[in-house]
Amino acid sequence: MMAIAGIFPVAKWLAKIKQRSDVGCTLCQRAREQRGATMENLPKETYGHMNSAFCDGIATTVTAAHHFIWRHLYASMQAAKTPASKLRFVTPDKESSMSTLWQEKEIKQICSRKSLTGKAAEIDKTISVEKHERERHDFDPTMFYASENRFWNPRLDGMAINKNHRTIYILEFKRSSDRNEDFLGVKEDEANEQRRSIIDSLKAAAPEWTFE
Length: 212
Ligand SMILES: [Zn+2]
Known about the structure:
Layout: H1 2-5, H2 11-16, H3 26-34, H4 47-50, H5 59-79, E1 87-89, E2 96-97, H6 98-101, H7 105-108, H8 113-124, H9 134-139, H10 141-146, H11 149-152, E3 155-156, E4 158-162, E5 167-171, H12 183-194, H13 196-205, E6 210-211
Parallel strand pairs: 5-6
Antiparallel strand pairs: 1-4, 2-3, 4-5
Helix pairs in contact: 8-13
Bound molecules: zinc ion (ZN).
The site of zinc ion has 9 residues, from α3 and α4.
């Protein structure tokens, strides 16, 4: 109930009303204690943090929730397909990495792995480095961009293909609180940004197809 109302007493709020002196996340702290990790740079305990996979203490739970809900939605989308629909769901029951997907015969015909790798290398340089990649990037930028894994390792929530319309949909499922009116737009932008490298590279490698 408190979570729905958004009034869960997180450290940041408790500090604001002077009931706590530090704002470090208690869940992260506990998780780090258990594995004997350093307490340096403990993330701030905010409502958003505690509901995200960035929180050490809750990551397993939110990831499980994501997969559980997504599997249900995915199955529902397939069940709702009309017999005339030409839409095919390529990854029906599990997340698949780009690398696994490009082993499928039908997918490989759209564009070769080699040309896609080439386009991705060009496009990746124009895309800002994500927070969790920052350390690797700063360590050796040349190596970072040369790494094919940045493109091929990400796991997609799903992919749907319509051969007749030459369209591919990269599916990304986001859980979100709907307290803010603009949550749909915010999450859509987030998903598009997250998959921009993949979508832009595909567009460049297979211009006769549409990717969304
Ligand atoms: Zn945390």
